[in-house]
Design goal:
This protein is of the alpha+beta class. Helices cover 23% and strands 22% of the residues.
């Protein structure tokens, strides 16, 4: 869990509380020096990336959704909050996609693609946002695990709920290299199947017309 430790270290001084979903683990890591802010949540991995929003219905305030394969810069929270102030009521992200109409593919076929690891110029309203680099306030937006019935497509479920709720998703400008990618051995992208693709396209088509 070296990547998790690096990710937590990068966020620890910037936030009040940290909730870590441990998918498929029964024992928490020994992180005594930072444990005071962390609530460990043990899950069986059946939720996939929707574990990021586990228990969200019981929380209030600004929520940052993060990934353990990223190390965040020292000014990450301050910058994202400044962007929220510019786009009040919106979901803020560093990674977003605008799909071609009609949607034919979930991975590819984008009209616009703003990547969290690459330079992005200007702020743009998008169809879906990257949930590992995302901020919102619970007064504006909430989503529960029950609204994510198919695993490992949280970005799509958030996009659907946001569109249905009239909440805009804004991919904001940033420089390449601002985030550090920690290169895990296995990712959700590696396990994406043809069946996953077909299902995601169907959901995308239901709210992007």
């Amino acid at each position: 869990m070296e990547g998790l430790r690096l990710s937590l270290d990068s966020l620890y001084s910037q936030v009040d509380e940290i909730y870590v979903s441990l998918n498929g683990h029964e024992v928490k890591p020994y992180y005594d020096d930072i444990d005071d802010k962390i609530t460990w949540i043990f899950l069986d991995n059946s939720l996939g990336d929707a574990a990021k929003v586990f228990g969200l219905e019981n929380r209030k305030g600004f929520i940052f959704l993060c990934d353990d394969d990223l190390a965040y810069p020292d000014n990450y929270v301050a910058y994202m909050m400044s962007k929220y102030d510019q786009h009040k009521g919106c979901i803020i992200t560093l990674h977003g996609k605008v799909f071609q109409h009609p949607v034919r593919r979930s991975h590819g076929g984008y009209r616009e693609n703003y990547h969290c690891l690459h330079t992005s110029v200007g702020d743009h309203i998008v169809d879906t946002g990257g949930s590992g680099v995302m901020l919102f306030h619970t007064d504006d937006f909430r989503i529960t695990v029950n609204e994510c019935p198919y695993k490992n497509m949280l970005d799509v479920w958030i996009g659907k709920k946001a569109r249905e709720s009239g909440v805009k998703i804004v991919a904001v400008e940033h420089k390449a290299g601002w985030l550090k990618y920690l290169s895990p051995l296995k990712t959700i992208w590696n396990s994406h199947t043809r069946e996953d693709e077909a299902y995601q396209v169907k959901v995308l088509q239901s709210f992007i017309r």
